[in-house]
Write a structure and sequence with these properties.
Layout lengths: L13 H13 L4 H18 L1 H14 L5 H27 L2 H7 E4 L2 H7 L4 E5 L6 H11 L3 E4 L5 H11 L5 E4 L5 H8 L3 E4 L11 E5 L2 E5 L3 H8 L1 E10 L6 E5 L11 H18 L24
Parallel strand pairs: 1-9, 2-5, 2-8, 3-4, 3-5
Antiparallel strand pairs: 6-7, 8-9
Helix pairs in contact: 1-4, 2-4, 3-4
Length: about 300
Amino acid sequence: MKRNAGNPFRPRYLASWIGLGCLWALSLVPMRILYPVGTVIGDLLRTFVSSRRRIAERNLELCMPHKSKVEIQQLVKENFRNIARMALYTGTVWWASKDKLLSLVTVKNQHLLTEILETGQGAVLIAPHMVGLELGGVFLSLRFDGISIYQYSHNPVFDRAMLKARQRFGSKLFERKSNLRHLIRAIQQGKPCYYLPDQDPGPRRALFAPFFGISTATWPVLGKLSKLGRAKALTCATYMKPDGTGFEIVFGEPLKDFPSGNDEADTTAMNAAIENCITQAPNQYLWVHKRFKTRPPGEPSLYK
């Protein structure tokens, strides 16, 4: 169920409509042209949005202590470029035709999902916050009658456009804070659920589990979804290809002995699977997010 985000046609949202129009116009521009433009914009963002640059640097220092300072800085540079490139590609993701999307995307290990669905069992797809995740959810709805959980936007113009874009090929979205009984029922009926689990849930709902060796506030939801939906859980990561040539969606092996019935063990297994996805392309993860904002009781902040 979608929340009421307000009337998108009020004059106060004129700038939002102009921005949406710009995104649509960018959908007409080949990605090979947008790629170098994203490089320039990313470098500007890294220079002028210093608070986010410091967050990304800190996250990478914590998660990859074996990297030198120069290597960390290079990862941050490319990370900002990839974030900017993907922002420019949003129009393509939201408005491209089925044939165009099919031409832009390759899928690796799709059999790992189809073999599950062919048995009539559902699947929960663990989608890490790689910069290309928006494309992954839209593209999967081309091949599978899937469902997803989303968080509504306070801006009704973009909330409306996002929902229409994500559902245009038949996918059904459930708002994160709505009653999820229908979502569970859909999983039980053998549908794949595209699920984004790797954000800080805050102190009230967090379970602390290792993530790159750091005790990290984690949503303890995947095991419950898998159990209630009688579904397998496996990763589904979306990566951008170089030079604006498209995207690759990669499925991982289903998590073994999952769910275990132990929330801590299940969140630990989930985080390990997400780590594996990130290490395949560390410059494409959303490092600008304060992943370690919530700390265990008594521990100091990891961000200065």
